[in-house]
């Protein structure tokens, strides 16, 4: 018989990491309900602010932050209290608009430049799949353009090309997660290009512009490495899609509510037709959104189905409203300031250690690229010294700094971080870099 799983403080007698992994492997495929989760061999029993604790009592400064949702900090009391106030009043019901739903949609419309109308959903994949359906219905076209290495959720055609998986001779990098539910049979309506390669975008539009329904892109690449758009690249996408009657969709699942309440589009000054939001919008609660031009969005619920049972759940919406309040009250500025301090410290440590590497990122995001030059495309990002990167990750893990499990995936910080957390991370990195140099 199984012992009861104790949470959150894991008192004496609770299962330890090894035992929990063995139990998980017996009943859950791969030992965790999300592929990448079983790659970090800790069983976490407590989360607070910038920290996670495993069952053995080891504390980590968490730079994974659930791949993005935790933007304020783990178990944020303001967010949790907002959710508690909501669940004392209402639960999920399917009768008309919900107060939190309307308020959150209004807030998103007021802060996100591309948002005239908003639908609230549960996951980033939901928002991007609906964007795909809407773009096809709106334009009456099938073909989509996307970029290598841009992860747009686990489902269907948007997963194609995340890891070169449909191109013969382009094996995925050794430590890349798979690209979800992509089916190579769908490849004829998906054109996958190199991010930041303006010429290839121009060529594709010149040859096939009339059949393209939409271009999907992260406006700042976070899925693998951290790469800024080349000067003029987003503007070019905007110009070509407009000229050819296609839609421009920004996947701001990682950038939205993290770098700017108005998304990276507010920083770049390029406004897409639709924007997918997820992750950080609810600080870990389940909520996502698709926002966009009213004439495009109005297809949802009419020509394109939107009947998700748990869409606009009041708990997620309450969490998002509280998250926006905290981000507006200086949270985003604090993350930018601490992110800058971290990237500068890491760059110094890399230089001192004499290691071939560099650090890139924006706002709260950061990554060490284990190569001479910062990568600009996904092809460059995977052309890296994976062995050294993995040795660094393990050394950091030993030192109590939790990094993403894959060498080329991005790390980040949260509002709850202090300058001490940043400096502890830099000191650990300085030692780890010397170890791997
Ligand atoms: N887009 C981007 C840029 C992402 O990073 C992710 C999640 N890693 C998604 C979409 C999918 O979001 P979800 O996992 O919530 O479906």
Describe this structure in words.
- The chain is α/β, with parallel strands linked by helices.
- The chain has one domain (67-437): 3-Layer(aba) Sandwich (Aspartate Aminotransferase, domain 2).
- The protein has helices at residues 17-27, 77-87, 99-111, 124-139, 198-208, 233-243, 263-268, 294-297, 314-353, 378-382, 386-398, 419-436; strands at 44-48, 51-54, 59-62, 117-121, 143-147, 190-193, 212-217, 247-251, 274-277, 288-292, 358-360, 365-369, 401-402, 411-412.
- A seven-stranded mixed β-sheet has the order 4-10-9-8-7-5-6, with helices on both faces. It has a four-stranded mixed β-sheet with strand order 1-2-3-13. It has a three-stranded antiparallel β-sheet with strand order 11-12-14, with helices on one face.
- The termini are far apart.
- The relative contact order is 0.16.
- It binds 4'-deoxy-4'-aminopyridoxal-5'-phosphate.
- 4'-deoxy-4'-aminopyridoxal-5'-phosphate (PMP) is lined by residues 67, 123-125, 128, 151-153, 218, 223, 251, 253-254, 278.
Strand content: 5-15%
How many domain units? 1
Largest sheet strand order = 4-10-9-8-7-5-6
| CATH superfamily caption | Type I PLP-dependent aspartate aminotransferase-like (Major domain)
What is Rg? Answer: 21 Å
Count all strands and give the number: 14
Overall helicity: 25-40%
Structural class determined from secondary elements: alpha/beta
Summarize the main sheet.
7 strands, mixed
Q: What global shape is seen? A: globular
Ranges where pLDDT stays below 50 over 5 or more residues in a row are 164-181
Bound molecules: 4'-deoxy-4'-aminopyridoxal-5'-phosphate
- Average pLDDT, all residues: 91
What is the count of helical runs? 12
Termini distance? Answer: 48 Å
Q: What is the CATH level 1 assignment?
A: Alpha Beta
What order do the SSEs take from the amino end to the carboxyl end, as H and E? Answer: HEEEHHEHEEHEHEHEEHHEEHHEEH
CATH architecture: 3-Layer(aba) Sandwich
Would you give the CATH topology? Aspartate Aminotransferase, domain 2
């Amino acid at each position: 018989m199984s012992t009861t799983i104790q949470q959150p403080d894991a008192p004496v007698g609770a299962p330890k990491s090894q035992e929990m992994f063995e139990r998980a492997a017996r009943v859950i495929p791969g030992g965790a309900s999300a592929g990448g989760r079983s790659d970090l061999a800790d069983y976490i029993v407590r989360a607070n602010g910038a920290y996670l604790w495993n069952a053995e009592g080891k504390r980590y400064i968490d730079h994974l932050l659930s791949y993005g949702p935790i933007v304020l900090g783990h178990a944020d009391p303001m967010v949790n209290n907002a959710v508690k106030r909501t669940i004392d009043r209402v639960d999920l019901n399917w009768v008309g608009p919900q107060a939190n739903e309307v308020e959150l949609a209004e807030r998103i419309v007021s802060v996100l430049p591309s948002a005239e109308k908003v639908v609230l959903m549960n996951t980033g994949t939901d928002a991007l799949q609906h964007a795909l359906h809407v773009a096809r219905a709106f334009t009456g076209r099938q073909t989509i353009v996307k970029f290598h290495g841009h992860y747009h959720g686990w489902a269907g055609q948007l997963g194609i090309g995340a890891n070169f998986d449909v191109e013969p001779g382009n094996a995925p990098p050794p430590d890349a997660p798979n690209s979800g539910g992509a089916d190579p049979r769908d490849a004829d309506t998906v054109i996958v290009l190199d991010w930041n390669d303006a010429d290839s975008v121009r060529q594709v539009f010149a040859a096939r512009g009339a059949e393209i329904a939409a271009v999907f892109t992260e406006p700042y690449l976070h899925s693998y490495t951290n790469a800024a758009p080349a000067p003029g690249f987003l503007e070019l996408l905007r110009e070509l899609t407009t000229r050819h009657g296609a839609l421009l969709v920004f996947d701001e699942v990682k950038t939205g509510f993290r770098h700017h309440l108005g998304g990276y589009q507010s920083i770049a000054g390029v406004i897409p037709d639709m924007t997918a939001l997820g992750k950080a919008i609810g600080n870990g609660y389940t909520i996502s959104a698709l926002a966009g031009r009213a004439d495009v969005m109005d297809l949802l619920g009419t020509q394109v189905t939107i009947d998700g049972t748990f869409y606009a759940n009041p708990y997620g919406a309450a969490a998002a409203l509280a998250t926006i309040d905290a981000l507006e009250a200086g949270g985003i500025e604090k993350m930018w300031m601490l992110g800058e301090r971290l990237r500068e410290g890491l760059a110094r440590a890399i230089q001192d250690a004499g290691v071939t590497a560099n650090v890139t990122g924006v706002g709260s995001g950061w990554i060490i690229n284990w190569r001479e030059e910062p990568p600009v495309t996904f092809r460059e990002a995977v052309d890296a010294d994976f062995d050294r990167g993995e040795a660094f990750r393990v050394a950091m893990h030993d030192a109590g700094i939790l990094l993403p499990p894959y060498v080329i995936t991005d790390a980040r910080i949260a509002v709850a971080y202090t300058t001490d957390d940043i400096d502890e991370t830099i000191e650990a990195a300085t030692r780890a870099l010397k170890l791997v140099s």
